[in-house]
Design goal:
D-amino Acid Aminotransferase, Chain A, domain 1, metal ion binding, alpha+beta, ATP binding, biotin, 5 domains, nucleotide-binding, Acetyl-CoA carboxylase biotin carboxylase subunit
């Protein structure tokens, strides 16, 4: 079968990654994009691009009819769905085939068989694949689920039967909390997947999440490419992935690989797929689900096998036989990947939007950064907050880990909040470095959540210096030509200047004065002399107390973004915007980001305690509880369920208690 033009029904980093392989294979690529993504990198990279609708995914990337029409108009013979969006939608895969196009993925029947967790568990049990005890019954009443839970025992997992990604999933430790978990899981599942069907499953509290990459062609070959360990998760969403797993022996790999191949053969699988297992502390493993698509974390498998999984997907889709046998699969070295998110770990991982003021990915031996962003673009509220994947490969796990920590530090995204510092901290945790992380790792390592340290006197001084250098450059531009040797010169000592900087809702005060080749700053009870060695529009090399500091910076006006190692800091000078923390403490509750109001839990006159849920907002594919920051009485509610609101919009007013 001839496939020379392929449309990518996706966006962001995965669309860019697919285009790179198509280009290497000499194939033509067609991108689709929403109006919000008109200038996105994947649109620029592709050989052709078609606009398919407005920013919201329902109007664009989830509109299968528009995507198929775009493929036909562009002369594409096939559609690659990437992951997310329509990649595991059996109806879309079927419609692609009915339109005379090739869907680069499994058959609609295989997607349907594995797409529903209840049906998949029944199917796998019949195929002899080990499964956890649970309930997958047709009776979805609370009474039936509560009765089944009593038989299974606690703790247990409540899961949406459709979909994945941690949505519609709740861990329940006792019967008292089950009714609320059922209500919340149903609501989230219905909003995310259009189905409120649930299953119950016995919970393993400290397992590993180990998944097997499988591949099958139409010539009878079905094999596995080893495992990935994806145990480091928060809210059932993966944060760090690696291959091979530090907990898997060659014997266990063979057993899990055989079970994964058995699972794939049970649905007559074709193409790339992933069979996910929970690996218990005693070495027993249990089927979790099968993802009938390419995984986000596929780069770690590519790096340890030397295979291009997208190229293999295309080969299988055009009818070719897989070019390798199971005996020829070799794992070389170790690879680890982290996901760079636009989110604030210190605020319960709240997704963030905003501009990409500066983007500079790390480079070097063994480093790979898959991204779909560039300087000047905007992080939109319409899409998933994952912006890039940073991956490192080395001869040993220790080599890969050392390279990855450095790559995380050197990958700089400024302008919006990211999880960079959190990622670096996770990688340095003794439990992770020792290969001991389970799915409980983040809860056990950060029982109070993650909180970045307050700015040090050195960091405050560097921020003050950058603001003053920016002011000096602006003054020089207005003054006209001044000889370089006279910059900063004065016949009398320059008087120190008081400077107030806002950081994270706090006001930091310092005093700064010009000094030979730099600045003297009094901050945080310390006197800091900053000797400037080299400075450019986005970088500063300075010495403080004999120690060199390399800083990347960006921003304009009264806003400064600063990167120092893995630290990402944003400072504001007075007048640069609303103090959200102060606003929340005063009882003014504003939307933390654009989104749709799903529910409102309070009415005027209600008394609330600090931490009570006020409303639920859906944004960036997740539901977010809006909680009271102060105890008091609700005096006004400005939103209603179904309303689409912008970031910063007033939602609720609370009169704080005295």
């Amino acid at each position: 079968m001839t496939l020379d033009t392929i449309l990518i029904a996706n966006r962001g980093e995965i669309a860019c990654r697919i285009i790179r392989t198509l280009r290497a294979m000499g194939l033509r690529s067609v991108a689709v994009h929403s109006q919000a993504d008109a200038g996105a990198p994947h649109v620029v990279m592709a050989d052709a691009a078609v606009e398919i609708g407005a920013g919201p995914v329902a109007d664009s990337y989830l509109d299968g009819a528009k995507i198929i029409h775009a493929a036909q108009e562009a002369g594409a013979q096939a559609i690659h769905p990437g992951y997310g969006f329509l990649s595991e939608n059996a109806d879309f895969a079927r419609a692609v085939g009915q339109a005379g196009l090739v869907f680069i993925g499994p058959t609609p029947e295989a997607i349907e068989a594995m797409g529903n967790k209840a049906g998949a568990k029944r199917l796998m049990g019949g195929a002899g694949v080990p499964c956890l005890p649970g309930y997958e019954g047709a009776d979805q009443s609370d009474a039936a689920l509560i009765a089944a839970a009593g038989q299974i025992g606690f703790p247990l997992m409540v899961k949406a039967a459709a979909g994945g990604g941690g949505r519609g999933m709740r861990l329940v430790h006792d019967a008292a909390h089950l009714p609320e978990a059922l209500t919340r899981a149903r609501s989230e599942a219905e909003n995310a997947f259009g189905s409120d069907e649930l299953i119950l499953e016995r919970a393993l509290l400290r397992p590993r999440h180990v998944e097997i990459q499988v591949f099958a062609d139409s010539h009878g070959t079905c094999l596995h490419l080893g495992e990935r360990d994806c145990s480091v998760q928060r809210r059932h969403q993966k944060v760090v992935e690696e291959a091979p797993s530090p907990a898997v022996t060659p014997e266990l790999r063979a057993a899990m690989g055989a079970a994964a191949v058995q699972a794939a053969r049970a649905v007559d699988y074709r193409g790339a797929g992933t069979v996910e297992f929970l690996l218990d502390e005693d070495g027993a493993f249990y089927f979790l689900e099968m993802n009938t698509r390419l995984q986000v974390e596929h780069p770690v498998t590519e790096l340890v096998t030397g295979l291009d999984l997208v190229a293999l997907q295309i080969a299988v889709a055009r009818g070719d036989a897989l070019p390798i046998t199971q005996d020829e699969v070799r794992l070389s070295g170790h690879a680890i990947e982290v996901r760079l998110y636009a989110e604030d770990p210190a605020k319960d991982y709240l997704p963030a939007t905003g501009p990409v003021t500066l983007w500079h990915p790390a480079e070097g031996v063994g480093i790979r950064v898959d991204a779909g962003i560039e300087t000047g673009m905007e992080v939109s509220p319409f899409y998933d907050p994952m912006l890039a994947k940073i991956v490192a490969h080395g001869a040993t796990r220790a080599d890969a880990l050392a390279r990855l920590i450095r790559a995380v530090e050197e990958t700089v995204l400024l302008g919006t909040v990211t999880n960079t510092e959190f990622l670096a901290d996770v990688l340095r945790q003794p439990a992770f470095a020792g290969g001991e992380a389970t799915t409980a790792f983040l809860v056990e390592s950060y029982p109070q959540g993650f909180a970045a340290a307050a700015p040090s006197p050195d960091e405050i001084a560097l921020a003050a210096v950058l603001f003053m250098e920016r002011d000096r450059a602006a003054a020089l531009a207005r003054a006209g030509h001044v000889p370089a040797d006279q910059l900063g010169w004065s016949s009398t000592p320059l008087l120190p200047r008081d400077l107030a900087l806002h950081f994270g809702g706090e006001t930091l005060t310092c005093r700064i004065a010009a000094a030979p080749d730099g600045w003297r700053v009094w901050a945080g009870g310390s006197e800091v002399y900053v000797l400037i060695e080299k400075m450019s529009e986005t970088s500063l090399r300075a010495r403080i107390g004999g120690r060199r500091h390399n800083v990347t910076h960006a921003g304009a006006g009264e806003v400064l973004h600063l990167a120092r190692g893995a630290r990402r800091l944003t400072f504001h000078r007075p007048g640069a915007g609303r103090d959200d923390a102060a606003g929340a403490a005063s009882g003014h509750v504003a939307a933390p980001m654009p989104g749709q109001v799903l529910s409102v839990a309070v009415a005027p006159g209600d008394r609330v305690a600090r931490g009570d849920t006020l409303a639920v907002l859906e944004a960036m594919k997740m539901q977010h509880q809006i909680a009271a920051a102060t105890a008091g009485t609700v005096i006004a509610v400005h939103v209603a369920p179904g309303a689409q609101i912008a970031g910063g919009d007033a939602m609720i007013e609370i009169e704080p208690e005295e």
